[in-house]
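User: Hello, can you help with two protein structures?

Assistant: Certainly.
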Amino acid sequence: METTRQLANPDAEISLLDLLVTLADNAKLLILGPLAVGLIALAIAFVLPKSFESVAILQSEPATASLIATAAVLDPAAASLGLASSESVELARQTLRDRVKTAMGRNDKLLTITVSGRTPQQAQASAKAVLAAIYAQSRPMGASKLKLETQLADTKLRQQKAIRAGDVLLPVLESINGRSGVPDGRDAELVKGYTELLNTVSAAQSQALVIEAQLEGLTDSQLVQAPTLPEKAVSPKKGMIAVGATLATGFMLLLFVFIRNGLRNSESDPASAAKLARIRRALTFRPKA
């Protein structure tokens, strides 16, 4: 039966044998070639500049993530790092922008800021410079600052007036509590008024804290994680570079071997040889007379 199948389909058996023969004839090239390229790529990866990443986590609003990519943050940060002195302002800004990555949490409002550098110290210093620029930019300025300061003064004044009014009512309420009998309607109004004063003081205090936080802007108190000092480089990934170069070279050499073998076999076939000749003539550049 097996002999009958081979006679019925000789081309399949021959094609498989030709494939194995081609691989065997070029085994050294297909094995040593990719290995050599992989070793060279690994050696090159060792001399490539390293990159380190410093990570800081800040509790803030999503708008802060967009603010980091603006010139208002990047320019002062680049200036503090000395980038603007060695490069143009626009180039220094772009250099720092390429080194900064941000990720905003959907539910926890935690902004992760990742800044890269050639050394661990440079990465950490860059992250600190970016944070300092964010802090400065988050503080209100000009008319917005003046408006908030006016609101804060009015709020504190309202709080003080309510406290003074409460101090006046408190002895009266104490005397009412010391009397015997059922309190009349006037006493009930005094108790209600004192309660409203307490609510006013509490609300004014809460509002004052909110306004003060807006005036202060972002600070280290919102910093969940200070910029880290990285210990290991994140790039280049030497193993991935070596493996990738080895696999790519192996594939290209395998393709080259089969194409070369196919061309050699075609030259022995008259019909294929004629087609190859036509292709060569079509690709040959002939200058016009």
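That covers the first. Now for the second protein you mentioned:
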Amino acid sequence: MNWNLPLVAWGTLALLLMAGEALVPGAALLWFGLAAAAMFVVVALVPGLSFAAQALLFVVFSFVAVFAWRRWFRRTEPVTDQPTLNRRTAQLVGMHAVLERGIENGRGRVQIADAYWDVTGPDLPAGTRVRITGGEGMTLSVEPL
């Protein structure tokens, strides 16, 4: 094997990216490191490949590696015993509250603990007890009790 500059460069880049994976969370650099390792093999097999062809192949290998990771290794969300953790709106579904500001034209407000939430639902006067049925972002959907 002839240790030319492109071969050494791809090998070094592959090692640096894979080592850098230890510093960056989320498996971000591993897949680019694998693409660089694939380029190391390609340059070893085809030593006369131009720089432009090498760069293009690296981009293609990177896309393939990231696509493979997203397709096969991240098929489903991890199973958890707390599915609503960090999803405050989902945690509130099913709770009862009193309208702090009546719902007019489909919009109103409730107070839950020390926070005010915008709500959507049928027009209702202030003071009506409602049940939270869902929500999107910081807006809850409610229905009268």
